[in-house]
């Protein structure tokens, strides 16, 4: 007993753990400062439908003054925990809608859609519907060109509340995608009830789709499921022509991935669209 307490006490003063806690606190403070001083920006990854660029997924980038780019996988979970995701998410929505409105005014970019990733806490707290409507209204963006990407886990947190929010935004024309599909715990019964436009096959299934028969079976099943529910099915993380060809052969005609382009700064994304043309 005493020994255990001793160990715990020792663990508490473990300098490595203390350093980790300090690093988190520092990163949190840096995020707040970064949001106030314009260190965040959106990159845009093209999404290809039937050979043409249909739109972009907006992906958040943080250019830290000392550390350079910090990956979303590092700061998004922290922002979720400390609550800063509410402000960060609002910033992303506003920036994405602003971009959407600017593209709508340019002939060759007017047909593009923009997809925004939404985090669970952002969706369930802090007046999410009002936040989206405010971003649309203040920028003049067309709701029908905005897609919100949700993940499976967050939909199950409070199904009735989730459906109510989705239905309300759908009423304005906003579309919904289920991101990373196949990695969570979606119930097929809910899938039928949710007003979705799109399923995104998680890149974890796409990666080895040519060599792992299980991944191939899962990818094909998601395509069949989504298609028969009347949804667009999009493959994420397509890196090779062979992967694209396999997916195409099995009925998946929409994809994103390094095969065409990684997430790009706005100007480079626009140049790519001018080169390839849009889907409309
Ligand atoms: P996600 O929404 O599933 O985004 C796809 C991720 O896969 C992106 O990573 C993208 O850069 C990467 N990717 C795209 N094509 C390929 C490919 O061909 N191969 C490989 N290996 N990777 C590819 P990123 O930008 O690091 O974002 C990671 C995650 O962070 C996102 O996953 C999303 O969950 C989250 N995230 C990014 N931006 C935001 C945001 O604005 N808000 C919220 N809440 N989450 C965000
Ligand atoms: Mg996404
Ligand atoms: Mg994804
Ligand atoms: Mg992901």
From TrEMBL:
Span of the signal peptide: none
Domain EAL: 24-277
Subcellular localization(s) per the UniProt record: Membrane
Name of the protein described by the UniProt record: PAS domain S-box-containing protein/diguanylate cyclase (GGDEF)-like protein
């Amino acid at each position: 007993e005493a020994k255990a307490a001793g160990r715990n006490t020792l663990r508490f003063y473990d300098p490595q753990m203390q350093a980790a806690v300090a690093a988190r606190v520092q990163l949190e403070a840096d995020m707040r400062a970064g949001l106030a001083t314009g260190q965040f920006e959106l990159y845009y990854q093209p999404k290809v439908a039937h050979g043409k660029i249909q739109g972009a997924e907006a992906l958040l980038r943080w250019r830290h003054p000392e550390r350079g780019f910090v990956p979303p996988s590092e700061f998004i979970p922290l922002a979720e925990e400390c609550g800063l995701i509410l402000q960060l998410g609002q910033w992303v929505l506003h920036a994405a809608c602003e971009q959407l409105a600017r593209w709508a005014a340019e002939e060759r970019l007017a047909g593009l859609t923009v997809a925004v990733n939404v985090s669970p806490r952002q969706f369930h707290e802090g007046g999410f519907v009002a936040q989206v409507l405010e971003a649309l209204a203040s920028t003049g963006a067309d709701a029908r060109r905005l897609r919100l990407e949700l993940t499976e886990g967050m939909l199950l947190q409070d199904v009735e509340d989730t459906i109510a929010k989705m239905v309300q935004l759908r009423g304005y024309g906003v579309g919904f995608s289920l991101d990373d599909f196949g990695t969570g715990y979606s119930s097929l019964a809910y899938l039928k009830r949710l007003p979705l436009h799109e399923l995104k096959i998680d890149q974890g299934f796409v990666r080895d789709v040519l060599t792992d028969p299980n991944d191939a079976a899962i990818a094909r099943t998601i395509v069949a499921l989504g298609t028969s529910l009347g949804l667009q099915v999009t493959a994420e993380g397509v890196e090779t022509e062979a992967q694209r060809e396999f997916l195409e052969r099995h009925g998946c005609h929409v994809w994103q991935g390094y095969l065409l382009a990684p997430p790009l700064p706005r100007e480079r994304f626009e140049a790519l669209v001018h080169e390839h043309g849009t889907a409309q």
